[in-house]
User: What shape does this take?
Amino acid sequence: MAKTEKEIRWHRLDNTANIFPVISNEHLSSVFRIGVVLRDEINPEILYEALKHMLPWFEGMQVRLRRGVFWYYFEANPKAPVLTEERLYPCRYIDPYSSNQYLFRVSYYKNKINVEIFHALTDGYGAINFLKELTAQYLHLRYPDKLPPLKGGMGEKTSLQVEDSYEKYYVKEDTKGYGGVIAYELKDELLPPGVMGVTHGFLDIPSLKGVCREYGVSITQYLAAVLVSSIYQVYHPSHARKVRINIPVNLRQFFPSETTMNFFGVVFAEMDLKEGKTYTFEEILGQVAEHFSKQLTKEHMEELIAYNVSNEKSWLLRPIPLFLKNIGIRLVYSRSSKAFTTTLSNLGLIRMLPMYEPFVEGFHFIMGASPKQPLKCVVCSYGKQLVFTFSSAFSNQDLQLAFFHKLREDGVGVRVEGNGVYPGEEPGRIPYPKHPGDEKRFQIWTKSYFVASILLGGFLTLLNLFTYRGVPWSLVSAGAILYFLFTMRFSVHHNTNPAAKILVQTLAAQVLCLLADASLGYSGWSVNYAVPALLLLANGMNLILTAVNHMSWQSYLLFQIEYVVLGLLPLLLWVFGVITRPALTVAALLSSVGILGVSLLLGDKKAKAELKRRFHM
Assistant: This one.
């Protein structure tokens, strides 16, 4: 943390969080939802007051994501939080530059409050902390005649601790990774892009516990085995593949931590399938429970922490620039994600203080599903009811129906409802809005626009080939089409920092000028005039942004450093004789260095603090 009040508060991402900014996008959101259903309709004005009142207490939530040279980091976010009415499907991607740059989303619908969180911020424990306190603050404001005043304090027993517990409990030891296991992959017909089906099963806890006692296993072991058995029944996996369930485990039960940052490990419940052999449920349960139990030891959790943290601590990896780390992280994630079939996360029992119970009907938990991870399963309990939730990108419910059928067959009381995506399944105790039809139309329009542009580029290229007279003009037309598509995708539809848009657009425009010069026989006007002129323009625009946003001027400092680097590169072209008229090149470099020098000189301590954040290793 920063040591003085003059510096902006910031902190590193925890070990697990580092992966999420790299892999997450519209197709893999890394967002989960914790929701509470109250007995009365939500008053949005009061809910917003409660949110504004309590948010400053949660240091780990009141942040925005920043990109450093070597690592991402979190920085204090001074902007007001955002509250919206729920209109779209759950667990959609949270763009780091939308919603006032917050990495969580609070919404309401009828008598339901949702908190959706980007997983880099926290895990289920931290999310429950946040939602319970938000609910308590709201209830005190909503029912002042029924609940005693809080006098500015907290309503729940809420942890506000922000520490990297992975770092705290890391012990160096020789460990191996998760291995090269390739698990059975679920494949089925998908729902339209952006659509996610949610199926809630409300399980009677007394009857569920009775069934688990008969089998001699825990609730999580039993539910994991039913899930494996249902996958086996519906998809008939063969060829000696494992059905492997990824189960996040709260490490706070093994180590004395109350951090609201991520602190979980991953174990697997799996079943080895031998080709040509059939299995009873008892056989599946036995293998799943045995394999699962062997991993639930403190020693195994210490090994997981040691393996994960050792990579981050490596002095060979730490100085590698972030863009290269991101490539490596994507490759590692792509490999590791093949090691499990689906995910089952159990948050356990959620409790509220007795004075709030008359106002609360129940809690639920949802994880985002997408074509890359098409099925997720989560569990949470409140009172005498357990809610088992499927989130799915598949267009059918065969697996869900098989799962709940097995529970009923074993004598577990089950009631099923959903979010209205699947035929015959409608919202019930957990309300959902009717989903808009323009989502699908927008997806169709976007794809049509992209295909038409590609076809036009292909047509112009063929036309150039058939009418070739020594000028490859199709390079310019194809480059212009790609530039336009890129501009629409990145600069228009993408909510990112304006300075980042200027930098990327400058690079793209410089490439387009080089293509145009090359296609017209190359006379050098691109490197002598166009490229440095575009850099001069970018310098000016970055200077304007710095002046307009003078309260946070230091956030543009890294971009100015990048312009200095871009200004230095053409000097090599001048040395090797590629640039023959260097006046604009020198002017662009001097302007970049001059603006950076003035910023550092006038910025003093703030500039140094910004560089410390951006260049931390």
Summary: Residues 1-6 have pLDDT under 50 and may be disordered.
